[in-house]
Predict the structure of Carboxylic ester hydrolase.
Amino acid sequence: MAACLLQVAIFIIFVCFANGDSKTVNITAGSVIGHSSSVTFGGKTGEVFQYLGIPFAEPPTGQRRFSKPVPKASFSSPFNASTFGKGCPQFAFYLQQWLPGNPAQSEDCLTINVFVPKAAATSGRKYPVMIWIYGGAYVIGQAGIYAAENVAMLGEVVVVTFNYRLSALGFLSTEDDNAPGNFGLWDQRLAIKWVHDNIAAFGGDPHMVTIFGNSAGAASAITQALFTENQGYFKRIIIESGSPFCPWAFEEHPKKYAERLAKALNCPYGSSVAIIDCLRKKSFNEIISSSIVGTQDEKVFRAEWVPVKDGHFLSGKPTDSYVNASGLLNIDLLLGSNSYDGAFVAILALQPYLQQLMNQSFTNGVPRKFFEETFIPMFVRDIVGKNDDALKSLLIHQYTDWNDPDNANKTLQSLLRLSADYNFYMPVLRVLLPHAKHANHKHTFVYEFDQRSSYSQDPTYLNGANHGDEVPYVFGFPYSMAAGMHYQNGGGTVVEKDLSKKMVLMWTNFAKTGNPNSPTATNAVTWPEFNLNTEQYLYLTSNEISLKSHLLPGRRDFWLNLEPLLLEKIMSSQGQNSGGPPIVG
């Protein structure tokens, strides 16, 4: 049924394009033909030109596999940009479980999409630009999910989405020059440069660019800002539920995974040269289908294939130079998290253990026992690499409701809070606090999204927003997300659509001015800048948009002050260097 609906949607898109206007623009690679369609959202109707599937790099195949992308050579004839490009190779099953899109995959996937309000395409005035980087833990995702015509039309901005390489094909590293890694980050960087070089032809302003992304896309946006060669390519960033501080956003020892992949595919794995030479001869399907090579503990909170130290894009952990990174301190920043961000990771982390619990009643202390003897130790091992009783006791103490410690529901909520804090909330705060303190004359805005949508299929105990739930609101409930997010084509309830409209306007206002309150009225409470005295942030649900202050003060103090001190003592007692506590001010 989902496949049939997808085919119908694609047919409708083709019909709209066939009946709409076309417009040709000239870019560095040649001529590109876009097509217009009529868009209605937020009580407004307008025309949007869509330029889909434009190649921005040569196919990363053969000797180009496991290498930096090469800019696309000139087109031999005008390029008809009428359909999204194929997704980069990835586990289709994972993608279909989250945000189903076009299942077609190819290594020739480095394509870019541009959504242009008709006025921008015809008026001669240059419009602000927003570049979306998709999330998916660096192993799944595709630009075709994120149809952006509603944002472009209502917000009157040019929106760009693109594909980048994923999984082993995007992030395999042998920790040397044979395959240094971060090829997906280099794809992102080339797409950003493509925008800088070409967006004026579409009516966009190359000097008024905002990068925005969710999860791994948010972590990528900050990582791109850390890369000094990107300075001048964008002036604002919006990050949703992710940062380079997230434990899943960096891998310190990637070569072991490259060797395991080689072994799984019967390749020699004694030298980097032999590994890469052999893997370049395998099909992408062979590589992707064999790429889950981590142990159960290694995969608890992260995928195997993520950004690494490569000596060029990243000379160390992205967080090492964060505070002094001029690329970050010279941008405006809007960021936030979802109330149940940790649920997505927690559910994934628990999968290997769920079968053990299937026949056990969640009464008589079973949740408490699981929390203390299985779940907490998983976090401890991820933090210090081994079991540690002191850190385990500290976490149990912090995440126990001592008024009712054996309550099964409260234990479950503690589990979800711990997952959220470790994987999302605190990593986002570690981006926020230095920016608010050091980024003079730049704007900082913070939100929390807490909407449990009417179409949600999450368990009832998730009485808020799961990881990624804000994305369809940010994109104005596009047709491309309907199947994956389980809403009817057009969106949720009336109040949910109104919340989406307000968020689209706030996000695009920020892209225009660095202020989400203007120039377009949002009919919402005025969103103040975040400062270290009042610490005000915007709380978002369909029933209430209001101001709150002081994000999670107790939990924040634990993770940003107490836990680093204990970790330093643990590492010192073992003769190791923890690298010091995280930089937060």
Remarks:
- Residues 2-343+429-549 form a domain with the Rossmann fold fold (CATH 3.40.50.1820).
- The radius of gyration is 23 Å.
- The chain has one domain: 2-343+429-549.
- Residues 1-19, 357-364, 578-585 have pLDDT under 50 and may be disordered.
